[in-house]
């Protein structure tokens, strides 16, 4: 059994997912973590007795090995690594909802301090694509932003939702790092600089990502799922009733291949094979895991796996030696495995007994219980809403044998995920001339089209949608019809690309039409649906670049209102900041006057000044509440603006998409609203 080689008990609570390790002097690794009250602690047992300077860093009164960095804001993310070209050691990066601090711990000095309007939910440090200098990339409110050592903004793009996890590695195998982004809309997106090159959809918020080796990476979801992908292909996944707080890649059994190390909310730590997901090691901390990192903490030339809990417990593990290789589990875990294998043996024996009884029935009847050519036949159809039931997709299951009949079975309710193609795994139990406890089981897989909840509309009198996107392709109409049949549930006999659909989910119409010159027009008032259709068609036709013209009057008017609100919130923010600065100066003067009165034994004036200070403090608290509400409303509006840019980009493919996103950002920077809407409509700023 593998046991920890060192255990520490730090007298500081640790915020979950905010643990890193850095060599701030270039030599000694220091465990660094965010703690309560807007502070970051740095544990450095290698330089005892050295007192920090008095800029931001202060010495802990509880532990001589710990220094505290006062951020004075709630920390939302942190990491450490080599950021500058000429720095001695690693740079510590600390993010909050409004700012990003790059800090030189060794020299006790700020490297840069930048305001980030979209917040910093997560952070990663490294090289991206062809950008020469390392970047500190933060993921915030639907936006990604990268800063170099001088604090210059070298990278910016938008993504589909709030970013929760980031990782940098060579995903495509071209020798350059891509950025993988996990967000709250359940997607894992791959960016080659600002170009989206791949996308994978999960079923919950992606909370953690880590690089394993090659093109393989691990992921964790908010519902307790962890797993491994190799590029776009999922190798395995498991789900637990607990939440995965941290994942890390580390070769714990010394076989030359890293395992996926997971720290759970119940304090459990386990190591799983990257190939099968089999547990090869597990241990337990006394409280929830806060983070898992690695480093040579004992300075003996061997890298240890370091696990921390939210209560400040730290354990370090060395990779297994030759005597323990492949045998990291303790005896109790082996007993659990034996019990599981025994249970599987009983199930297999029961199944074998059923087969033997089935063979006896065959001999009694003299013929097969069910003809050998029996197959399941399935059909999918769209059913509009009625008084008795909601709109749904109906799956009909039948067999060709007359005695079996036809049975209509499961229904996909309107709440099923869309637009995401689903696979239906169907298990049908059939009993014919069999004992009551025995069934023939048929298994079949059926693909549910991506846009299943759209029914063909034959009513030509309905008013067409006001929103539209238009683009041209060099393809035959039959290819577009093939795409329609693959992604919609069309009735038989539809051979034209000109089709109108009813949305059974949110109402409204969707119209698809194609002119003889190859121009396709998609009419819908849902800009998200239009983007999904454009991306789906481009993927089906293998289009690398596609420009388009779009107009969504209702949505653009809502966006214009949002931009006006952003300006108003910014104005209020500036006024409140100025008022707070005035109050701060007033407080300083009043404190001096109160202290002077006290020294002169003028108690009447002293009480008067302190009463005024009390009233002023109450006003400041109220102003802070107003400021906080204003800030939250501003963040919501900025999220809407970033989403609008993302949606405008999804109406194009390839280079035109990247150009639209970049041009929209420049228009927002220059506060040119009219130019922004021209870009969203035409894909360019020219009128």
TrEMBL record:
Its protein name is Bardet-Biedl syndrome 2 protein homolog
Q: Does the keyword Transmembrane apply?
A: no
Q: Which SUPFAM superfamilies match?
A: WD40 repeat-like
Q: Give every Ciliary BBSome complex subunit 2 middle region domain span.
A: 165-272
Where found in the cell?
Cell projection, Cilium membrane; Cytoplasm, Cytoskeleton, Microtubule organizing center, Centrosome, Centriolar satellite; Cytoplasm, Cytoskeleton
Q: Which organism is it from?
A: Scophthalmus maximus
Task: Indicate the segments annotated as coiled coil, or none if absent.
Answer: none
Q: Tell me the lineage of the source organism.
A: Eukaryota, Metazoa, Chordata, Craniata, Vertebrata
Question: Does rRNA-binding show up as a keyword for this record?
Answer: no
Q: Which PANTHER family match?
A: BARDET-BIEDL SYNDROME 2 PROTEIN
Q: Residues in domain Ciliary BBSome complex subunit 2 N-terminal?
A: 20-126
Q: Name one Pfam family in it.
A: BBS2_CtH
Domain BBS2 hairpin, chain residue ranges per copy:
553-650
Gene Ontology CC: one annotated term = motile cilium
Residue span, BBS2 C-terminal helix bundle domain: 655-681
Task: State the gene name recorded for this protein.
Answer: bbs2
Keywords, sorted A to Z:
Cell membrane, Cell projection, Cilium, Cytoplasm, Cytoskeleton, Membrane
Instruction: Give the highest taxon in the source lineage.
Output: Eukaryota
BBS2 platform domain residues are: 461-541
A GO biological process held by the record: non-motile cilium assembly
């Amino acid at each position: 059994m593998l046991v920890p080689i060192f255990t520490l008990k730090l007298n500081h609570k640790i915020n979950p997912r905010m643990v890193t390790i850095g060599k701030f002097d270039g030599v000694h690794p220091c465990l660094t973590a965010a703690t309560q009250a807007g502070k970051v602690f740095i544990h450095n047992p290698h330089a005892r007795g050295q007192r920090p300077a008095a800029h931001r860093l202060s010495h802990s009164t509880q532990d001589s090995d710990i220094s505290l960095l006062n951020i004075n804001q709630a920390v939302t993310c942190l990491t450490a690594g080599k950021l500058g070209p000429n720095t001695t050691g690693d740079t510590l990066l600390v993010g909050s909802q409004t700012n990003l601090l790059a800090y030189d711990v060794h020299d006790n000095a700020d490297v840069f301090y930048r305001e980030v309007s979209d917040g910093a939910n997560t952070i990663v440090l490294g090289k991206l694509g062809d950008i020469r200098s390392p970047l500190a990339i933060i993921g915030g409110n639907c936006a990604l932003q990268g800063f170099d050592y001088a604090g210059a903004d070298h990278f910016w793009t938008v993504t589909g939702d709030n970013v929760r996890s980031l990782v940098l590695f060579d995903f495509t195998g071209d020798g350059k790092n891509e950025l993988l982004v996990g967000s709250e809309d359940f997607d894992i997106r791959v960016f080659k600089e600002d170009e989206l090159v791949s996308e994978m959809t999960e079923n919950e918020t992606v909370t953690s990502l880590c690089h394993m080796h090659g093109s393989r990476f691990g992921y964790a979801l908010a519902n307790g799922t962890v797993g491994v992908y190799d590029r776009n292909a999922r190798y395995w996944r498991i789900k637990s009733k607990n939440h995965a707080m941290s994942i890390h890649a580390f070769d714990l059994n010394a076989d030359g291949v890293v395992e996926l190390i997971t720290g759970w909310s119940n304090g459990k730590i386990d190591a799983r094979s990257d190939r099968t997901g089999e547990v090869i090691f597990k241990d337990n901390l006394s409280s929830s895991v806060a983070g898992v990192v690695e480093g040579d903490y004992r300075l003996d030339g061997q890298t240890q796996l370091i696990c921390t809990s939210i209560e400040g417990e730290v354990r370090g593990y060395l990779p297994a030696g030759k005597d323990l290789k492949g045998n990291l589990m303790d005896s109790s875990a082996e007993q659990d495995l034996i019990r599981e294998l025994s249970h599987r043996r009983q199930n297999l024996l029961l199944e074998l007994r059923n087969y033997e009884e089935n063979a006896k029935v065959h001999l009694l009847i003299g013929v097969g219980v069910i003809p050998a050519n029996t197959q399941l036949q399935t059909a999918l159809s769209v059913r509009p809403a009625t008084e008795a039931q909601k709109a749904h997709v109906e799956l009909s299951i039948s067999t060709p044998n007359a005695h079996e009949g036809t049975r209509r079975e499961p229904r996909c309710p309107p709440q099923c995920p869309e637009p995401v193609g689903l696979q239906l795994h169907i298990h049908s139990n059939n009993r014919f001339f069999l004992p009551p406890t025995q069934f023939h089981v048929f298994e079949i897989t059926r693909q549910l089209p991506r846009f299943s909840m759209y029914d063909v509309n034959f009513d030509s009198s309905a008013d067409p949608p006001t929103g539209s996107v238009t683009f041209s392709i060099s393809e035959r109409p039959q290819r577009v019809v093939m795409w329609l049949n693959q992604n919609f549930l069309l009735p038989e006999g539809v051979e034209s690309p000109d089709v109108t659909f009813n949305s059974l989910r949110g109402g409204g119409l969707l119209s698809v039409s194609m002119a003889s010159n190859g121009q396709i027009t998609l009419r819908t008032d849902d800009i998200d649906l239009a983007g999904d259709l454009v991306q789906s068609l481009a993927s089906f036709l293998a289009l690398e670049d596609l420009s388009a013209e779009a107009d969504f009057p209702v949505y653009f008017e809502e966006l214009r209102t949002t931009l006006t609100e952003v300006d108003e919130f910014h104005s209020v923010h500036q006024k409140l900041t100025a008022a707070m600065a005035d109050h701060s100066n007033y407080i300083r003067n009043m404190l001096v006057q109160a202290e002077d009165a006290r020294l002169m034994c003028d108690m009447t004036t002293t009480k008067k000044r302190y009463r005024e200070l009390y009233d002023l403090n109450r006003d400041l608290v109220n102003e802070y509440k107003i400021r906080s509400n204003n800030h939250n409303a501003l963040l919501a509006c900025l999220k809407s603006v970033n989403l609008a840019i993302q949606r405008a980009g999804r109406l194009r493919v390839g280079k035109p998409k990247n150009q639209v996103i970049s041009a929209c950002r420049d228009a927002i920077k220059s506060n040119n609203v009219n130019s922004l809407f021209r870009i969203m409509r035409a894909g360019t700023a020219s009128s």
